[in-house]
Each structure stands twice: as C-alpha cells, then as structure tokens.
Amino acid sequence: MSAGLPLLARRAWAAPTARRIVAEEPWGRLERLGEGVWAMVSTPLTGDRTTLCNGGIVAGRSGTLVIEAFGSERGAQWIAEQARTLTGRAPTHVLLTHYHSDHTAGLRGLVTSADVALFTTAATRDLVNERNQDPPRALLAAARLIDPARATRIDLGGRRVVVTPARGHTPSDVSVRLDDPDVVFCGDLVWNGMFPNYVDAVPSELSTSVRALRSMRAESYVSGHGTIATPADLANYIALLDDIEQAARRALVRGVTAEAAGAEYRLPAASNSWTLFNPRYFERAIGAWMKELAASR
To answer: Is the CB of residue 34 less than 8 Å from the CB of residue 22?
Structure first.
C-alpha cells in the first residue's frame, strides 16, 4: 500500500495536529473534537493496517457510539478500550458507514454482547455478508436497520446524532452529523490528502452526495481516509472530483482507454501533494466515470 511513497510523505501523513491527541499508536491517533467527541485518524501509510480507516467515538449521558468497526479486531478492541477509558463506559452503539472490509472487519471486537446496538443499512449488511471474508453473520442478523430514505436519529442521552443515508462510494453509504461540536463523520464519501477509491463508485452519485455534505456547513468533516477536513478542504475535494470527471470526458472524446488516461492523469495543483493507496486509483476513477458517461449516451 505504501510501497514507493517517499519517506517525507509518510512522515507528513503522521504529522502532529493542532487538536489535542488523547491516544496515539503507530497505526493512528484519537483527536479530541469537543466534549465527548473524538475522531480516530488512522495513519496507514507506515504500513500498519490495524485500524486502517478513520472513525470516531461519541459519548452521551447514557450511551457511547463508536463509528466504524475498522480494519481488524485488534484495532476495534483498541477503540473499545479507549471508549471505556475516555467515557467510563464500553461502547453501547456501533455504526457502519458502508460495507468495505477496512470499515467492518473488526466488528467482533466491538459488538461483544447483545447489549451493543449495531446500526447499518440493509444494503450494507447484505454486502458485508456477500463480499467480505468471514463475515459476522449472526451479529449482522441482529443489526438495527437504518432507513435508506430518510435521516435516523440515535439518542445517546443528552446528545442526538443524525444519520443521513446516501450513496456514491458504494450502493449504500451514511454520514453522521453532530451539532455540538459541529462535525460530520463522512465515511468514505470524503477523502482528504489521499486520492479516493472508486472501486464501487457511481461517480455522479458520489459528487451529489459530497455536495450534500458541504451543504451541511459543518466546521469539521471527518474523512474516511486522511486527515480531518475543513470546509476549504471539502471544496478542494469537490474540485478534484470534478477534475476526474473532466479527465474522463476528454478520454472519451479522444478515444483512449481508462488505463491510458490514468497513466496521463496529474492531480490539480491544490491536490498535488495527495497520496494513493494504489497506483491504479487514477485509472479506476477515470474508468468509473467513462463507464457511467458511456452508458448515458
């Protein structure tokens, strides 16, 4: 994943943040966003995939929500331990933003009893079962299903979080909005400092969903991968999504393949320091747009 990345880029990824770090490991750090709210910022470019994705912990008077189940049971167990340390309570709620295994593989490390409420959409549940290795079928069967057509509110006791359904990165994505602090946990609808993975993407739907997140006008957006985004970062990300679309349109006009267009592609100046998990991500993103545009003709 990090092969070929310059040492300077890997160090920059793990650079200290202005926010207070309450726990830190080689695979990532917990940053305090406000009273009872922490973001897990994974730093996988060192090669350590223990948590792999970003997520968070949100605490109320009567419940503690962990957003994402992360890339391994070890990572999920570490998050659960941090939740107990920070809130005095083991996680009572767990929420999945989408089905990809880097966000779900640790479920058994978080949902350890029937007292833990697991929230997911039916589509995400089904995709975990169908596509992921060794899915926790029994845990998923007991999940509380998020309405795919409207917002769902979860009451943690004096703190309500709003779960908004979307699609675009996968067939079923959700975001999580808090009002105090003013934060949105975006799942992989948003990447910051790292080029997005279009493996399951419907590009036009992704663009629409990200613009809907911008319309929330939050102060901070916790990306699925990369650092926490500001509104300016989100605007830059939208500009990148638009640039990928234009590259695909040019490739179709020229009659070149996605592979060739991906090999030629260069990041916009505002994003030229971004890194990639995989050198074929340019080709994958442009190819996803080319497929959608060709189908609409």
So the answer is: no
C-alpha R_g of the chain: 18
Residue 85: C-alpha distances to residues 22, 41, 88, 90, 109 (Å): 10, 18, 6, 9, 16
Query: 26: cis peptide before it, omega within 30°?
Result: no
Amino acid at 185: F
- Tell me if 172 sits within 8 A of 123, measured CB to CB: yes
CB 221 within 8 A of CB 256: no
Q: Which residues contact 26 (CB under 8 A, 6 or more apart)?
A: 43, 46, 48, 50
pLDDT of residue 47: 86
Pairwise CA distance, residues 91 & 257, whole Å:
48
Each residue of 211-225: pLDDT tens digit? 999 999 999 999 999
Ranges of residues in the chain whose predicted pLDDT is under 50 = 1-9, 11-12
DSSP class of residue 174 equals: E
- Where would I find the beta strands (DSSP E) of 86-240? 93-95, 117-120, 144-145, 152-155, 160-166, 173-178, 183-185, 191-192, 220-222, 225-226
Positive/negative CA dihedral, 196, 68, 181, 212: positive
Helices (H) and strands (E) in the chain, counts: 10, 15
Q: Which token pair is 40?
A: 């897990």
> 3-state class of 257 per DSSP?
coil
Q: How far is CA 186 from CA 118, 143, 146, 173, 180, in A?
A: 18, 21, 16, 9, 16
- 233 alpha-carbon distance from chain centroid: 15
In whole angstroms, give the CA distance from residue 123 to residue 202: 15
